[in-house]
Every structure is written in structure tokens, then in C-alpha cells.
């Protein structure tokens, strides 16, 4: 089914069930079946994917599972910033639509009081004859889960909007709010650069000031002191030396 909504001018391809909305968006781009901008959403995913090759639990109707395919008008070195742009857009949409004070954990997880609410998985796709790459941004948000709806291994670390607000969340309404927010923050980023996004991101952040474990599995801890003008995480080791990381998960 196709529909259009608000300031978001792209088509939305909706499925009852699909392997992964990211995988479907990639197939559509590679086959030339659709041109950016468009979104793919499903009520359930049979092979939902997370970052670091993890699975993303995608039971019917419990979560919002959506992927946005777009082709940002920015220089190649700015492209990775799209994940931080999306995190800001998603946090703002959830705050407005659901009245939940969600925060961003670098680079693009949404958290509520120390528990994970949503994740973002970005991938780049080159279409035949294209001069710029397309980007697929997959977003998974826990909507209407009760405690027992989460797989056991994430039960103590995940949270849903229903658990936060006590209300059943209207999936289609939140998707429309999310696409609207994504559209306007992406426009702002393309027009004015990363500085405004960085400011908004820092206002929503729950990582700066925390001692975190690094993604290198060494068990080393470092203090997060900020994010750079390019979106890297800035940290300080025990000797006070500053360093940055551009990707990977840090553990709070
Ligand atoms: C993470 O590991 O935090 C990222 C999770 C991203 C999950 C979403 S759900 C919609 C889209 N389709 C997928 O297969 N993954 C993303």
C-alpha cells in the first residue's frame, strides 16, 4: 500500500510482514523498483537486523519497524552524520508525539532512564549509474511491549513507550511524526551544516559526562567529554589524554 504524509513527500511501502525493511529497501534501490526518497515499513519482520550483526526482535504489532531510503545532498565525508540527524529527528518526534523524555546514547540509540527504547541501523547502497550513494536508515522503536514481550536476554535492558507512558502507542501516527521530523531535520542539516544538529544532539544526549566501556572489548573505561564538530565521540583516558571514536557501541 502507498500513501503520502505531511512534509514528507516520499512514498511509504507498507507490509504486514517482511524479512527486514532495510533489506527490502536495498532490493528496491538495486532493482530500480523505487527512487529515493521512500520509506518501507512492516508490522512484523522475520529477520530484523540490528547493528554489529545482532538480531532485532520484531514481533507483530509490538514495535515500529521502518526504513528510510534517501540521497542526501551533502559531501561524502558528511554522510555518516545522517545517523545523528536521524537520532535527533526520532527523539524529537517521540518527545512530541508520545510525551516521553527520551535521550540519545551516542551515536544513535534512544534511551529512557538507562534502558534502550530504539535503535538505528544505517547502510549505504550504490544504484547503477548513480553519482551519489543512497542511504538506508532503519529505525526500530519499542512501542507496545510489556515486560514478557521482550526476549529474555534484553528484558532487563529494554523498554517500550507503553511501559514509559502507560498508553498504547498509535504506530501509524508515530511513523507520520517520525517522517515529518526526519524531513525537516535533514533539510536543516543540508542547508546549515552539522553545527545545529550537534547542538540539538548534545541537548538530548545521555552519554557526555559518563564513564563508558570502549567498543574494543579490552574492558578499558574512558570519560565521555563531548562530540566533535564531525560527530565523533570525544573521550578522555585515565591519564587525561583525549581521543575520538567514530563508530562502535560504548557501554554506559
Ligand atoms: C540497533 O542495533 O540498535 C539497530 C536496530 C535497527 C532495527 C531496525 S527495525 C527496521 C529496520 N529493519 C531492520 O532489519 N533493522 C532496522
Number of strands: 11
Record the strand order, biggest sheet. 1-2-3-7-6-5-4
Distance between the termini: 41 Å
Oligomeric composition of the shown chains: single chain
Could you tell me which ligands this complex binds, including any ions or cofactors?
Answer: biotin
Low-pLDDT runs of 5+ residues are: 1-5
Proportion of residues in helical segments: 25-40%
Shape: globular
What summary fits the major beta sheet?
Answer: 7 strands, mixed
Mean pLDDT: 93
What amount of the residues lies in strands?
25-35%
> What is the alpha-carbon Rg in Å?
18 Å
Strand pairing plus helix content: what structural class?
Answer: alpha+beta
**Helix count, per DSSP?**
5
Order of helices and strands: EHEEHEEEEHHHEEEE
Question: What does this molecule look like?
Answer:
This protein is of the alpha+beta class. The chain has 5 helices and 11 strands. A 7-stranded mixed beta sheet has the order 1-2-3-7-6-5-4, sandwiched between helices. It has a 4-stranded antiparallel beta sheet with strand order 8-9-10-11, with no helix packed on it. Strand 10 (about 235) and strand 11 (about 240-245) form a beta hairpin. Helix 2 packs across helix 4 and helix 4 (about 170-190) packs across helix 5 (about 195-205). It is globular. Bound molecules: biotin. Biotin (BTN) binds next to helix 1, strand 3, strand 6 and strand 7.
Summarize the structure.
With 252 residues, this protein is an alpha+beta fold.
Amino acid at each position: 500500500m502507498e500513501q503520502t504524509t505531511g512534509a514528507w513527500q516520499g512514498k511509504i511501502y507498507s507490509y504486514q510482514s517482511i524479512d527486514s525493511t532495510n533489506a527490502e529497501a536495498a532490493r528496491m534501490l538495486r532493482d530500480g523498483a523505487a527512487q529515493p526518497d521512500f520509506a518501507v515499513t512492516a508490522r512484523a519482520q522475520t529477520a530484523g537486523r540490528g547493528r554489529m550483526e545482532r538480531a532485532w526482535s520484531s514481533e507483530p504489532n509490538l514495535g515500529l519497524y521502518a526504513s528510510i531510503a534517501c540521497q542526501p545532498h551533502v559531501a561524502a565525508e558528511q554522510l555518516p552524520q545522517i545517523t545523528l540527524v536521524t537520532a535527533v529527528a526520532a527523539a524529537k518526534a517521540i518527545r512530541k508525539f508520545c510525551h516521553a523524555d527520551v535521550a540519545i546514547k551516542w551515536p544513535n540509540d534512544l534511551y529512557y532512564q538507562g534502558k534502550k527504547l530504539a535503535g538505528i541501523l544505517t547502510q549505504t547502497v550504490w544504484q547503477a549509474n548513480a553519482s551519489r550513494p543512497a542511504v538506508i536508515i532503519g529505525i526500530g522503536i519499542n512501542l507496545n511491549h510489556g515486560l514478557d514481550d521482550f526476549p529474555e536476554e534484553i528484558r532487563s535492558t529494554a523498554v517500550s513507550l507503553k511501559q514509559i507512558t502507560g498508553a498504547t502507542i498509535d504506530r501509524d501516527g508515530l511513523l507520520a511524526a517520525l517522517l515529518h521530523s526526519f524531513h525537516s531535520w535533514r533539510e536543516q542539516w543540508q542547508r546549515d551544516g552539522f553545527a545545529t544538529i550537534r547542538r540539538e544532539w548534545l541537548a538530548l544526549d545521555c552519554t557526555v559526562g559518563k564513564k563508558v566501556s570502549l567498543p574494543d572489548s579490552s574492558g578499558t573505561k574512558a570519560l565521555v567529554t563531548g562530540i566533535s564538530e564531525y560527530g565523533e565521540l570525544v573521550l578522555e583516558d585515565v591519564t587525561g589524554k583525549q581521543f575520538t571514536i567514530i563508530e562502535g557501541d560504548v557501554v554506559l
